[in-house]
Design brief:
Number of strands: 10
Distance between the termini: 35 Å
Oligomer: single chain
Largest sheet: 7 strands, mixed
Structural class: alpha/beta
Shape: globular
Strand order of the largest sheet: 1-9-8-7-2-3-10
Helix content: 25-40%
Strand content: 15-25%
Length: 239
C-alpha cells in the first residue's frame, strides 16, 4: 500500500488504457488537476515524458521544463537498466540486480560513463547554455510516460533534493506498484492513473500505440516548450 498515492481505481491492473502518450497526458491531467498547485513547475523526463507533458502543461496551464536523466543499460540489452544517472551527475545503482546478473565493476563503470555522456549530450542539445530553474521556491512535479523499476525517476528526485527542491510530486500515466512503493518515501505525493502489479510489467503495455520518441521529435518538442536551446532563456515557459 502506498499512502501518498493518487490513482484512478477504475484503471487498476488494466492494459491498453491509453491510445498514445498524448491521450495519457489528457487522462493524467484530470487526475492531477485537484492537486497541482498553480505555481508548480512541471519537469518532463526526456524522451517519453515530453509528449505527455505537452498535454498536462497545456490543460493545467503549468510552467514546464526538463529533468534530464538516463538509465544505465545492460551491455546486451539497451532497453533494460540497472541504475540511472541524473543531470547533476548523481548516480544510483541497483546493487542486488548487479550481483544477480554478475556484472563486473568494469562493466558497471563503463555503463555509468556512457550514461553520463548521454546526459551531458542531451543537456547541451536540449538546454544549451540555459540555466536550470530555481527548484527551491516552488512545488515541483516530475513527469514521465511510465515507471517500471522506478530507478531513473528516483535518481532524478535525489538530484532535485540536492538542488534544494522542498516539495516534489511524481506524476506518471502508468507504473508498477513496487516502483510506486519504493518512491513513496522519497516524495510528498505520487499521481498515477494506471497502477499495475504482477511479475510481468512493461510501460508500453498501457498504450495501444507505442513508439520511441526520436531525437528530432524530442528537439522539436523541447524547443516549443522552452525555446531554442541557444537562446539562453532564464525561465521556463508557460504553455
Amino acid at each position: 500500500m502506498v499512502a501518498n498515492l493518487i490513482e484512478l481505481t477504475e484503471y487498476r491492473d488494466r492494459v491498453r488504457v491509453f491510445r498514445d502518450r498524448g491521450h495519457a497526458g489528457e487522462i493524467l491531467a484530470t487526475v492531477l488537476a485537484p492537486y497541482a498547485s498553480p505555481d508548480a513547475l512541471l519537469l518532463a523526463v526526456p524522451a517519453g515524458g515530453v509528449p505527455v507533458a505537452f498535454e498536462v502543461a497545456g490543460r493545467l496551464n503549468l510552467s514546464v521544463d526538463l529533468l534530464v536523466v538516463s538509465k544505465i543499460t545492460l551491455p546486451w540489452n539497451t532497453e533494460a537498466g540497472y541504475g540511472a544517472v541524473a543531470f547533476d551527475g548523481t548516480v544510483r545503482i541497483n546493487e542486488p540486480l548487479v550481483q544477480h546478473l554478475r556484472l563486473s565493476r568494469e562493466q558497471v563503470e563503463q555503463g555509468i560513463s556512457k550514461s553520463r555522456e548521454k546526459v551531458s549530450r542531451r543537456l547541451g542539445l536540449l538546454r544549451g547554455s540555459r540555466p536550470l530553474p530555481d527548484f527551491t521556491k516552488r512545488p515541483v512535479i516530475v513527469l514521465d510516460d511510465g515507471l517500471a523499476s522506478g530507478y531513473t525517476m528516483s535518481v532524478g528526485v535525489e538530484a532535485l533534493r540536492k538542488a534544494g527542491a522542498c516539495t516534489v510530486m511524481v506524476a506518471v500515466p502508468t507504473a508498477h506498484l513496487d516502483a510506486l512503493a519504493r518512491l513513496g518515501g522519497e516524495v510528498e505525493s505520487i499521481c498515477c492513473a494506471n497502477v499495475r502489479g504482477g511479475w510481468s510489467f512493461a510501460v508500453a503495455d498501457a498504450y495501444r500505440l507505442w513508439t520511441d520518441v526520436s531525437e528530432g521529435e524530442l528537439r522539436a518538442m523541447a524547443a516549443e516548450l522552452l525555446g531554442p536551446a541557444d537562446q539562453g532563456e532564464t525561465a521556463p515557459r508557460r504553455r
